[in-house]
Amino acid sequence: MTVTLKEIQDAYQRIESHIVKTPLLNSPRLDAIAGRRLWLKAEPLQVTGSFKFRGACSAVSALSSEVLERGVVAYSSGNHAQGVALAAKIWGARATIIMPHDAPANKVANTEAYGARVVRYKRGVESREAIGTQLATQEGLHLIKPYDDPHVIAGQGSIGLELVDQLRDAGAKASSLLCCCGGGGLSAGLATALHSLAKDITLHTVEPEGFDDTARSLSLGERVTNATEQGSICDAIVTPTPGELTFPVLKRYAGPGFAVSDMAVLNAMKVAFDTLKLVIEPGGAVALAAALDPATLPDDQELVVVASGGNVDERVFQQALQFG
Amino acid sequence: MTVTLKEIQDAYQRIESHIVKTPLLNSPRLDAIAGRRLWLKAEPLQVTGSFKFRGACSAVSALSSEVLERGVVAYSSGNHAQGVALAAKIWGARATIIMPHDAPANKVANTEAYGARVVRYKRGVESREAIGTQLATQEGLHLIKPYDDPHVIAGQGSIGLELVDQLRDAGAKASSLLCCCGGGGLSAGLATALHSLAKDITLHTVEPEGFDDTARSLSLGERVTNATEQGSICDAIVTPTPGELTFPVLKRYAGPGFAVSDMAVLNAMKVAFDTLKLVIEPGGAVALAAALDPATLPDDQELVVVASGGNVDERVFQQALQFG
User: Fold this and answer.
1) Which of A156, A221, B43, B318 ranks highest by number of CB atoms within 10 Å?
2) Tens digits of per-residue pLDDT, B61-79?
3) d(Cα A38, Cα A45) in Å, to the nearest integer?
4) CA nearest B182: which of B85, B52, B19, B86?
5) DSSP character for B44?
6) Quick check: B3 and B154 in contact, CB under 8 A?
7) In B, which residues are within 8 Å of A86 by CB distance?
8) Ranges of H-type helices in chain B
9) Considering CB atoms only, which of B25, B86, B273 is closest to A279?
10) Residues A249, A128: one domain?
């Protein structure tokens, strides 16, 4: 199944009554700091604290009652986990979630609180894909991949449907959108929606420095892999390589990707605290970090930024509060 | 001028294109912690970080061009200051703001950043009302009071217009609303809107313990004064006595008021960080704090909570993060 506007609209119809239509925020003080007008789509306010709930609801709601009866399994550093756990609960399925040993404590606790069984694995040593496939086979569970799943991509793309309306209502004149990127489910879905509904807006992916597989893959025209999966504070978007389904979409529709430092990310989190009163997690703040850097794009341009999630431990958030 | 639904609707028409229609948030995890369904109106996401921008825009937009030409003056611990400063800038008037010596640094800095002249006074020693009146007379400025002004009350009441629609869309079945209360501008405006549009919802004021002049005044049927104006972390809502214009409205339309401890407030701020990804300042979190206390109202009831602002120094926010 190729994801087109039709699949995104269908997904939105299935999930609309369960998700938050997140606001498009702006702030005169943020604009003053950025030196340009910024519009921020606030997905930390999404149910379960990140956009991943959209894709999870889309995927779970597309399953037959027989499959729901057997249950679902997912691997995730945390946000997809919480999304699938709650979506499964809503549609009456049991969920098993495979999470890395170093996943933030709050993400593990929340996933369990939504009623899911959590299985841990050692990131960088064990393969979560292999564990997921094995559990799916052994227990007859349906595997919901975090980004290489058309229904997941379509669900994430629903952000684009809301965004296009909200930008028009706000009178925004942005021609670039910055989007946090891990495996590319969000950016591929969003780029697909923009391609149909707002061709004048170009999506750029943003990743942590040293984990910019998508930016390098886009530049080379083929999928490359990061040297390591460990060492970034942006746990939510550290993936080894762009997705099989997502990369061709990004190659077709997205502009060059950017990368930002951990320091720039912590600073962006502090700026969002100060000016937007929004809690953003490190992986969710990379796009805002790039937007605050005048070197990213010509500084007279309005920019749209997606803040993708807010599930951050208080210890990490305290590091950000010490900035600025 | 008595404020009725008509004045609130007129105010909304003047300010609608300048304010954020703030989302009504809920969260399964918050509901689990509260032991009941909660709906939270997120005014920290309002422009300038608090609901005060609504009332300030309403008051400034109602002024004649001659009055705007001379300029406006306001006294405020911070949120009304920021609201008036930005509203004045939007409508092309110069603003002078009288702020207490112990106002949070970020509120002072923001007020100046919006282009206002800031004059400091010693809270508990000097009278901000006297300084405001004197400046108004000397310099021909128009004084915009923080709550005892019909246009301000009507502007704050605009929250009620949005809320009634949002609660209906969400299928909420709440019969009680908890609202942070300082001088009563927000609660009087909101109670007036609810009285016309949602008679089945009773508004209750919430204040800090030791500063519960409204709760005690409602209980006695006449305006009483707090023993002190100092010593609460809830700087935004520490006012000595209910307003002259606001109290009769609350006496008529509001249910009994509640009071909460500083500890309960810090805990509520942490819960909002964890479950809603929303930054709430102490004075803005008293209603959520009351909602989290099972002793406040029968715990099988759905509740609506207004979070009124998010302008908190990082030092105070760090105290909250250490909770729970």
Assistant:
1) A156
2) 999 999 999 999 998 878 9
3) 18
4) B52
5) G
6) yes
7) 28
8) 5-15, 28-34, 52-61, 65-70, 79-90, 105-113, 128-139, 150-170, 185-197, 213-220, 246-253, 262-275, 286-291, 314-321
9) B273
10) no
- Residue A52 annotated in active site: yes
Residues of A in contact with B273 (CB under 8 A): 279, 314, 317
Enclosing domain of residue A275: 5-50+150-321
Say if residues B89 and B115 touch (Cβ distance below 8 Å): yes
Q: For chain B, give me the number of helices (H) and strands (E)?
A: 14, 10
Residue B12: CATH number of its domain: 3.40.50.1100
Residues B138 and B263 in one domain: no
State the SS3 of chain A: CCCCHHHHHHHHHHHCCCCCCCCEECCHHHHHHHCCCEEEEEHHHCHHHECHHHHHHHHHHCCCHHHHHHCEEEECCCHHHHHHHHHHHHCCCCEEEEEECCCCHHHHHHHHHCCCEEEEECCCCCCHHHHHHHHHHHHCCEECCCCCCHHHHHHHHHHHHHHHHHHHHHCCCCCEEEEECCCCHHHHHHHHHHHHHCCCCEEEEEEECCCCHHHHHHHHCCCCCCCCCCCCCCHHHCCCCCCCCHHHHHHHHCCCCEEECHHHHHHHHHHHHHHCCECCCHHHCHHHHHHCCCCCCCCCCCEEEEECECCCCHHHHHHHHCCC
Check CB contact of A124 with chain B, cutoff 8 Å: no
Residue of A nearest to B90 (CA): A28
Taking alpha carbons only, the member of A73, A145, A82, A146 closest to residue A114 is A82
Choosing from B104, B121, B143, the residue where a domain stops is B143
Based on the structure, what is the number of domains in chain B?
2
pLDDT (0 to 100) of residue B44 = 98
Are residues A179 and A230 both part of a single domain?
A: yes
Coil/strand/helix, residue B38: strand
Can you read off the two tokens belonging to residue B134?
A: 């004197």
* Domain match, B158 and B267 both: yes
Question: Of A143, A176, A205, which closes a domain?
Answer: A143
Claim to verify: residue A36 and residue A173 sit in the same structural domain? yes
Segment A127-179, tens digit of pLDDT: 888 998 898 899 999 999 999 999 999 999 999 999 999 999 999 999 999 99
Residues A80-100 have pLDDT tens digits of 999 999 999 999 999 999 998
Task: Residue B307: name the closest of B45, B34, B36, B33 by CA.
Answer: B45
- Judged against a pLDDT cut of 80, whether residue B324 lies above it is answered with no
Whether B196 is a known active-site residue: answer no
Q: What is the pLDDT of residue B248?
A: 97
Backbone torsions φ then ψ of A247, nearest 5 degrees = -60, -45
Residue B63, both tokens: 């002024």
List of residues 6+ apart from A121 with CB closer than 8 A:
A75, A98, A99, A100, A101, A127, A128, A131
| pLDDT at residue A8 is higher than 80 | yes
Residues B16 and B32 in one domain: yes
Q: Which of A18, A22, A277, A313 to mutate to test the interface with B (most CBs of B within 10 A)?
A: A277
A121 plus A243 within the same structural domain = no
